[in-house]
Amino acid sequence: MDSEGSSGGRSAGNPDGPATRGGTDHPKVILVTGACRFLGGYLTARLAQNPLINHVIAVDAIAPSKDLLRRMGRAEFVRADIRNPFIAKVIRNGDVDTVVHAAAASYAPRSGGRATLKELNVMGAIQLFAACQKAPSVRRVILKSTSEVYGSSARDPMLFDESSSRRRPPGEGFARDSIDIEGYARGLGRRRPDIAVTILRLANMIGPAMDTALSRYLAGPVVPTVIGHDSRLQLLHEQDALGVLERATVAGRSGTFNVGAPGVIMMSQAIRRSGRLALPVPRSALVAVDSLFRAARNSEFDREQLDYISYGRVMDTTRMRTELDYAPKWTTAEAFDDYVRGRALKPIVDPRWVRSLEVRAVSAAQRWGR
User: 52 CB contacts (<8 Å, ≥6 apart)?
Assistant: First the structure.
């Protein structure tokens, strides 16, 4: 809701083994794709403020707003579609040594559907990695991937580690695209062993500024849930997502890393903490209920989102802490509470009334127990 493949990008796993490749030299010229999106734009701004980096090139197919362009500071913006071979010229002429691919999108643009999204995601990655392979100056590639590659099911392990495989193949969607893109990134690493390829599988992100499927799902006054299910949520604050991307860019550590905040909250807890009202419905009816409540939000559920709402997903982030040397500043609960504060979500039901009702119910149960 907002797995590593084999060489063909078709299954989860971590054929890289331990993170071994990579250098200690600081990057000098960095290219960031998806620069007009939240993560790409703010990452560009952070990197541009680093005095050890000589030049930052921000790339996107659309022009940035004046505010975003101002925020990018000394970074150079280049309007380019990474599906176009022109991106190879940008990398070659800029003498780029580090590429951060943050352009993959989880939802289709207004002007196109699923086919357009797949072309943007997969064909864009193929063209970009081909350009990196041909450019002798490139030494690092960082890919922003997603925990969605693991999927969600009733048979999931308590924790997914980087070698875990998803229980069933994904359908056509963002998870499928992400598995394929990871496969192409590892293919680049095999063909150019001198390039350190870093894959970051980010947990579902949340925060006051990011607009994600999960943040939209929990923002409505009534939240439809699946009867009999209470999914486990591991989240990642938007600022920690930026922090780990910056860390990976500078560190140059190759390998695949799960990235998520410490701790877990249940979906029922998240709904209560945000002051929403849960509406338990059969899974088969959830799509219809969601369409009724959110017709204007473009947030219809697909199978992957339904599975996530039903089961959730939690990852083992040991390698993130020990090998990438990154520790999130927000726990899952803190990240969620910051989202609630930042969005100024007002409780539908006064929490004091709910607590009073709970106390009275407990007291009544104790009296009946005697």
Answer: 26
Tokens of 341: 């504060």
Residues in the chain: 370
On whether the CB atoms of residues 265 and 334 are closer than 8 A, the answer is: no
Distance CA 214, CA 212 (A): 5
DSSP-derived 3-state class of residue 153: coil
Q: Are 42 and 241 in contact (CB under 8 A)?
A: no
Which two tokens mark 162? 């980087």
**Contact assessment for residue 223 and residue 276, using Cβ atoms and an 8 Å cutoff:** yes
Residue with tokens 């990398």: 91
Q: How many Å apart are CA 77 and CA 128, to the nearest integer?
A: 17
Question: How far is 150 from 155, CA to CA, in rounded Å?
Answer: 12
How confident is the model over 163-213, as pLDDT tens digits? Answer: 998 887 777 788 999 999 999 999 999 999 999 999 999 999 999 999 888
Nearest in space to 90 (alpha carbons), one of 155, 137, 139: 137
CA distance 73 to 94: 18
